[in-house]
Structures are given as C-alpha cells and as structure tokens.
Amino acid sequence: KGNQKHLKRTEQLLAEHEAMLEQAKQEAVEGTLEAGPWVADNEKMVAGLRQAIAVHQDSAIVDGTIVQVS
Description:
With 70 residues, the chain is mainly α. It is built from two helices and no strands. It has helices spanning 4-30, 36-57. Helix 1 runs antiparallel to helix 2 (36-57). The protein is elongated, with a radius of gyration of 15 Å. The two termini are 15 Å apart. The relative contact order is 0.21.
C-alpha cells in the first residue's frame, strides 16, 4: 500500500476495464455479441480493482503494508 505508481496503474486499468465492460454489456443487449462469460469475468476484475484502490485510499492502513485483495 502507498505505492503511487501502483495506484495510478490500478486506476488506469479500472478505467479501461469499466469502458470495455460497458461496451460489452451494450453489445450483449443489442444481441451483437455473445459476451456473458466475458462480462462476468470482467465484473470480478472491476470489483477487485476497486478494492485495491480502496486499500490505497484507506488512511487506516499504513503505507508500506503488503495487502492482498481477494
């Protein structure tokens, strides 16, 4: 926790995955893409990235603490 480079990369990944997820959900609604399993996996990825960001932003966790998000 506390590595700003890791936080910035995690935020970037979150933005990318949220955009891809939104597009896949729209494609699934329109029936142009069979994205069910991919959507489910990426929803888990987005949730994990959000948890990681929450850890970085949690002042109760001391910087330098090794944290595993599950």
